Amino acid sequence: MIPLYDRIANALNSSANTILPTLARFVFAATLLFYFWNSGLTKFEINPLSPGVGGYAQIFPKVMESVGFDVSQMSWFHWAVVVAGIFAEFILPLLIVIGLFTRLAAFGMIGFVTVQSLTDLYGHGGIDQPATLGAWFDRLPTGTILDQRAFWMVVLVTLALKGAGALSLDRILTNRR
């Protein structure tokens, strides 16, 4: 029985480098691609270089509140951060889905989701809302921050560590070198 188990385990181990990254990219595309793209669309009105109230309010909620939601009072720094966020929400997910510079894009998304989560917790007051914050080991997998984003991170860390997998532009470029 043990030799059979070992053969199965070895077969699974040898296929993991192909299956896991491809599966992670598929899950990312199926669950998060349009989430991030739709979020990016809410941050500008005419084009990504001219963020709207929604972009500033989502990324700098307390600052926007302090200036009465008057975008003209935001600094160039605020503009640059919002524009970078807009481009990140479109470009990084696309790179992950097509498997191009996947590790770099996954690390970028890990940073993005971390900042997004901190903004949701401290900027938007999620830290004071137990249903939004959630709690690990509480039998309820519905908390937006601790529960759902932990799953997002597992997908992204898988891609950062394993790369894009066999079915990717990264693999095509690597084979051409």
UniProtKB/TrEMBL annotation:
Q: Name one Pfam family in it.
A: DoxX
Q: What's in the keyword line of the UniProt record?
A: Membrane, Transmembrane, Transmembrane helix
Q: How does it sit in the membrane?
A: Multi-pass membrane protein
Any idea what this protein is called? Putative DoxX family protein
> In which compartments does the protein localize?
Membrane
Q: List, alphabetically, the InterPro entries matched.
A: DoxX
Task: Give the top-rank taxon of the lineage listed in the UniProt record for this protein.
Answer: Bacteria
- Transmembrane regions listed in the UniProt entry: 20-37, 76-97, 150-169
What are the GO cellular component annotations? membrane
Task: Give the source species.
Answer: Octadecabacter antarcticus 307
This protein's record includes keyword Glycoprotein:
no
